[in-house]
């Protein structure tokens, strides 16, 4: 039965029936014809046009399959790079978006029977990074363009420079720590040496004589007869007793006046009034503040 002419009701009805995706196994890539059911595909395979096309393809079957495979891979990778970039995505999601175009190259005409084999092929060739999880196969496109390679190289150089700066800072910090440790060790050694010298200087020899200090008056020898004792005279102007001149008579009236005046002052001075409780508290508070200030200043 001949095909319906374009624009006829039969043609429009066939187009409406073939709208959307249909079974992959009922599609003929050689003739680019989609059949709606198994019976339709069987009738198409037995048609004269299909047999003639198959004879042409059979002469160079490998070349045709390679062409279909290359076209399928290029379109799939183009969609992956344009739609998802270098992000990690499920392979089945990319495939569903790829086959949404009705006139795409179908997988049954390529050398890959399943999507898993095609994804493994992309991983082996380095086109994409592939990994398998419990949710299925995931792929991520590897951008090998000169612009992307230059950008990656620039980022690597920047990272190396940053790492070298960090290493340089770490080395400087380590040197400063070692220098500080060395200075601290030298100071400790010097302190120990000074302590040893002081201990040596303050150490008393066993055969040395005992030293005694005398605070007796001038001209009077100490009762100690220890050999090697040191005799020290006390300055009479600072704390010693001054002897009175025996030729000079004492002034009796001056002593009496002084004693009488001092007695009058003592009699005339009234006794201090008793302190109240409030005054005592104020004095205690002032005394406490004064002690606190002395401790802080010390």
UniProtKB/TrEMBL annotation:
Region ranges (Disordered): 178-205, 237-298
A Pfam family hit: C2H2-zf_KIN17
Keywords attached to this entry: Metal-binding, Zinc, Zinc-finger
GO molecular function, one term: double-stranded DNA binding
Domain DNA/RNA-binding protein Kin17 WH-like intervals: 52-178
Transmembrane segments: none
Biased composition (Basic and acidic residues): 191-205, 281-298
One GO term (biological process): DNA damage response
GO cellular component: nucleus
Family: Belongs to the KIN17 family.
Protein name in UniProt: Zinc finger protein RTS2
Organism this protein belongs to: Guyanagaster necrorhizus
